[in-house]
Amino acid sequence: MKDIMTETPFGPEDMARRRKRAIAVALILGAMVVLFFITTLVHLGGAVAQRSF
């Protein structure tokens, strides 16, 4: 009798495809974060660090 917990439902090709997809999504998300950060800095202006609250 095979142990159910040791069997994987996905093959090595499937896991490689999922890993590549996860890396692509992470890179896209990181690029969006950088884009939003730069857009915010441009919108607030260059003197944002010199403002007094």
Question: How would you portray this structure in words?
Answer:
The protein has 53 residues and is mostly helical. It is 62% helix and 0% strand. The protein has one helix at 12-44. The radius of gyration is 22 Å and the shape is rod-shaped. The N and C termini lie far apart (70 Å). The mean pLDDT is 85.
Structural class by secondary-structure content? mainly alpha
Biggest sheet, in brief? none
Q: Round the mean pLDDT to the nearest integer and report it.
A: 85
Radius of gyration: 22 Å
Bulk shape: rod-shaped
Strand content: under 5%
Strand and helix order: H
Low-confidence stretches: none
Kindly state the number of beta strands: 0
What is the count of DSSP helices, taking H or I runs of 4+ residues?
1
Distance between the termini: 70 Å
Classify the helix fraction into a percent range. Answer: 55-70%
Key features of this structure:
rod-shaped; mainly alpha; 62% helix; 53 residues
What topology emerges from the helices and strands here?
Layout lengths: L11 H33 L9
How would you concisely characterize the structure shown here?
This protein is an all-alpha fold and 53 residues long. The protein contains 1 helix and no strands.
